[in-house]
């Protein structure tokens, strides 16, 4: 019964939004956008609390709307900033943090809005990007490492802000095309074209770009620092074609394609690739 409910609930929500679009395309689009931007998980779990509490640092105010919780594991080496993915939090990096600590890196991470110990109820890439900019300006890292939506946010952040102190970027399992993500969203909820047109207008008005314009492929063309891109061919969350396209347009990037590691990319193999890359020429 539970599995059946999980399967049909998105269709019920989509049907409600479709009905709403009959009398107000704008209202239907706002509802669809709010659902799209609302994470169902990612808050700190009980078994994650102790690890994060030892490193809690500042809370930074972003856009006068959310307080972003930062974490710091101090070291005398280069500063590395870790950017987690959707429905996750800074704890996802704990194994990498242990390795980086042994190498004496100065490690910074933070919880995205509506995740971990940060405030807020929604998250989207533009909001995540402004949060990343606030954290980046405060801690001045030389290396960004992002996973999934955090990887795409890192790429968009560089495109938008061109930070001079960033020397290397690592992207793990990042998506690329908002248009492809929205097609999946439309399919899952069975939303009609009226709703999708309304969503596109809402995105244009709120962020200044259309759904089709938001492209990791295109943003990657602006990156002039070295980058490491890792993606698993069997990633069931984000298609491997996303990172292949980003790599094609990122002139100074190294691409590693794994097999059987999935979307999380937590494994020793991935950590070894990351450490080898960020230590090179440093």
Automatic annotation (TrEMBL):
Highest taxon of the lineage: Bacteria
Q: Name one Pfam family in it.
A: Abhydrolase_1
Which keywords does the record carry?
Hydrolase
Task: Give GO MF terms, alphabetically.
Answer: hydrolase activity
Domain (AB hydrolase-1): give its ranges: 78-183
Database matches in InterPro entries: AB_hydrolase_1, AB_hydrolase_fold, AB_hydrolase_sf
Q: Where is the signal peptide?
A: none
The cross-references to PANTHER family, in alphabetical order and at most eight, read: HYDROLASE, PUTATIVE (AFU_ORTHOLOGUE AFUA_2G14860)-RELATED, MONOACYLGLYCEROL LIPASE
Protein's name according to its UniProt entry: Alpha/beta fold hydrolase
